[in-house]
Amino acid sequence: MKTLLCLLTLLPASLCAAGPFTIQQIMSAPFASAPAASPKGAEVAWLENEQGKRNVYVAAAPDWKAKRITNFATDDGEEIAELAWAPDASYLLFVRGGDLETGGDNPNPAVSSITPEQEIWCAAADGSSVKKLTAGQGPAVSPAGGLVAFIKGGQIFTMQPNGEDVKNIVTQKGRPGDLHWSHDGQSLAFTTTRPGHSLITIYSLAEKSLRYLDASTDHDEDPVWSPDDSHLAYLRIPSVSPKIGPRPEREGEPWSIRVVEVKTGIARPVFRASEGTGSVYHPVTSDQQVWWADGDRLVFPWERTGWCHLYSVPANGGAPSELTPGEGEVEDVALSSDRKTVYFNANIGDIDGRHLWSVAPAGGAAKQLTTGERIDWAPTPLSGALFFLSSSFNRKAHPLLRIEGKEQSVADELIPADFPASSLIKPQPVSIVAADGMRIHGQLFLPPNAKPGERHPALAFFHGGSRRQMLLGFHYMYYYSNSYAMNQFLASQGYVVLSVNYRSGIGYGMLFREALNYGADGGSEYNDVVGAGLYLKNRTDVDPARIGLWGGSYGGYLTAMGLSRASDLFAAGVDFHGVHDWSSLRDVTGTPPAGGDPKAQREYQEALRLAFESSPMATVDSWKSPVLLIHGDDDRNVSFAQTEILAEALRARHVEFEELIFPNEIHDFLRYDHWVQAYGATADFFARKLK
């Protein structure tokens, strides 16, 4: 057994290995995210992550040139999110630091002696000033006068835009979220989440009163105001008992959309999903899930056909109309300021891609706005323009603007001079057969300048999630954009790399995503791991004795599954923060049934047994191949204990393993430097074990 230092202080030599580019170079380009249009639509803000230095950028009409309005100059691991514009677009608020994903205690990946706070900042839109206002998150600026509501310590506060006059306006049980001011700025709607259910809540500014609307035992969420502020529409998702680990949910008690009259509190259902396919709610990736559109119609996602599409229904009830037919999934959705056009991105007609579309809320033919080999997402309607994000096989996430059918770049000047765009290869779409016969999609990266008849080491890559889909270019999520960069680097180093879109991922419909016996219900994705290994083994350009695999999170789970069950096929692996025993996660994802119902107790114990049998720990005795374990010890998604139990088991069985542990780091590494170190260690490990 070999063990690396807990934290590498020197980067591995492979970061500067011979070849067309280094890991630092391919990781160097900025990553754009989170666009937000101003209320006037004449300005747009977005975030750029430039080698761990996160800042807010703004572009405005008429020239739409990018301007950085903050100046955070270090890779300190403090994220920026939750951009909120002033009504007059003179300033915008944002949140810096804290745990923006799980809401836990504030992380400290830079290992400061004092943990940084999560704070709300204010930046002038012209870049003239940046000011820290207060501790908190979730700022919502009132359309009338600019009063700011925000969340701190699980309660709701208000303040003036300059950070003065801070008041605690709501102190209640539960966790508030999703703050929405009414159009007149007199009421604040939000969701209150409590154990087992959630409530739609309204606070009246004038009366300083609080009301819970249409309370139930279910999860009411995603409130949206009617244009005249007289009603709220929201989702009602039936409550279910938590399960042990992920498992398929193809149908259940149907979800619904309800509308409540604010004055009287009288609520009524306006839509209810049908039984069977689509009865379990599947969200789009947008912050909003219901849109109150022109013609008094509500726009929402639904999987009635087995694909996540958009529908609309009259706000007073009626038959739903499908807006986005075809085989493919809708992902990002935005409504124009006049509420007459719905913009979305989807892989309709290009199953391994993403393009932008538009459609009227009442229906009609959807119009495809972008085509080609790019990946386009995050449509952001402006006044006379459409801002969006895009990537390709050799370009990371970057902003583009569409005006009168023509496109223009917004921030090309941010690309480093040594980013190796011309050295990257186009991955090929491939289809492989899993061990049980299921057809699986993937992307194949071939070494450049490979010679005929030459055999190469090979790697299978498995993404996390599992609700993800890897694409034929840089991904729209930061974590997987990094993974794509790493696969490009590995190909440049002489590996044949297969990125696998295994079952239970998104992009291929509900039946594929809710695959039978996946996850803790049987681990059926292991069939895809074996299928990927056999596909590589049977290629004439692969050395069958030098096949490895790697992945993070759920991909770490599948890496461990491959090594614990097929060490004869996979010679080595790198496991980033993987799940190793589903049954040990029961304290977070499943609880023993209350009461003394013998049937429920038996079912729970059987689920617990199956969860363990679906885990790498169940077959660790047959694990023979060496592995590199990489994990941050402040991980809030996959407990660090998952790697601890695996390391103990491997040590007891004299299986060779190495470790790279990042103290204070979370699941999606917050520091760019940690990504570079982790990928350098990965390349170094595979070079020693496979090359």
Describe the structure.
The protein is built from nine helices and 40 strands. With 691 residues, it is of the alpha+beta class. It has an eight-stranded mixed beta sheet, sandwiched between helices. The protein has a four-stranded antiparallel beta sheet with strand order 1-2-3-4, with no helix packed on it. A hairpin with a 7-residue loop joins strand 11 and strand 12. It is globular.
What integer value in Å does the Rg equal? 25 Å
Please state the overall shape, judged from the principal axes of the Cα atoms. globular
Q: What strand line-up does the widest sheet have?
A: 33-34-36-35-37-38-39-40
Please describe the biggest sheet, giving its number of strands, its sense, and whether it closes into a barrel.
Answer: 8 strands, mixed
Q: Give the mean pLDDT.
A: 95
Instruction: Give the structural class.
Output: alpha+beta
Contiguous helical run count: 9
Strand percentage lies at 25-35%
In total, the number of strands is 40
What would a concise description of this structure say?
The protein is an alpha+beta fold and 691 residues long. The chain contains nine helices and 40 strands.
Features:
single chain; 691 residues; eight-stranded mixed sheet; 40 strands; globular; alpha+beta; 35% strand
